[in-house]
Structures are given as C-alpha cells and as structure tokens.
Description:
By secondary structure, the chain is of the alpha/beta class. It contains nine helices and eight strands. It has two domains: about 5-15 and about 85-215, Rossmann fold, CATH 3.40.50.1000; about 20-80, DNA polymerase, domain 1 (Orthogonal Bundle).
Amino acid sequence: MTFRGIIFDLDGTLIDSLEDLADSMNLVLQECQFPQHDLIAYKSFIGRGIRNLVKAALPENRRDEETLDKCYKLMLEIYTENCIDKTKPYPGILELLDELKSRHLKLAVLSNKADALTKKIVPSLLPGYFDEVMGLILEANRKPNPAGAWDICKKWSLAPKEIIYVGDSNVDMQTAQNAGMFGVGVLWGYRDGQELMANGAELVIRQPLELLSIL
C-alpha cells in the first residue's frame, strides 16, 4: 500500500504538553481547595479531551455536573493563557515533518483538545506543516469516534487505507481501527507499548524518524 497522507494526534505525539496541562489544572484545584496531582498522574488523564481531564483530576466525590462545569470553565480560561509556556515539540518531530513535507504527503492534526486551543497551539509551535488542523468541536465526535478522521479523508479525496494515523494512546489506536487507517503507536508519549498493541497498533515506534520506514 502506498500511503498518501498522515494524521497525527497532538498531545503526547507531536508535542509534550504535560507540564502546562498539569500546572493549569493544579491551579484550578488549588483555587477550588481540592488536592493537587503530580506530573505522573496527569499522564493517565490526558488523551480524552480537557473536560475528561478535569473530571479525572477532581476528587471522586466532587465530580457532579455543577462542580465539573465550573472547573472545566476555569481550566479553559487558565490553560488558554498558559498552553504554550512550557509545551514544545518532541525531539525529532520537526525533522520528521520536514522530511514528510519534502515528500509531498498530506499532513493533518486531529486532537481531542478543544478546537480553538488546537488551532492556537499548532500554528504557534509547528507552523506551516499541516494541511488540516482539527480539534474537538462536538463532544459526540470525540475520538475514538472516526468522524474527524473521515472528514479529513473527504477533504483530501483519499481513502482511509491510504492514510497513516499516528498517536500515543489507546484512544488513538482505536480511532485508527474505527476509521480503517494504518495505526502507528509512539512510545515517547504518555502511554506504553502494551496499551498501544492491545488496542490495535499495527506498528509501534520509539523515535519519530522511524515512521519513514513504512513510506
């Protein structure tokens, strides 16, 4: 199969956003007088959208809709102001993207992060690389729902089997399977290889440039 396009997850795949997410959420928890979490804990909170991150970070007995809505709104305000303070591309990502662009492949970002945030972060940290940048607009379309991936297919006039989907989590590999794309899991993000393989990864890579081996 000749691949003609690649869709990337954002957090844990292209960029290391762990500290900014953790710092912002801990400010929310501090303001609400709830216990805070360390960086390691936040690795398991990331990947299912910011609202789910907020829910996971709240005490189990304070996850009612009123508290969740309040903290989610505050998190969006704080994180929007601080989303690129410490966040940066992973080592090797810029080199990979340069090579992929030189091969004239279609490139996209598909994230469960809110669409406005995704479209703020990607042009700031990874300018000029992507033909499509899509974050979460409708909760019903949150990955692993393949709707966003299929929208990108239509815009590119490509079949799903012509597209590689790259991500770091079970949600990403499920998205690839649901969309009928070739799922590649990355080991530099927030999950391990066992989780990626268990959720359908067809290839797992340790360094960004290893992706070139299947092109």
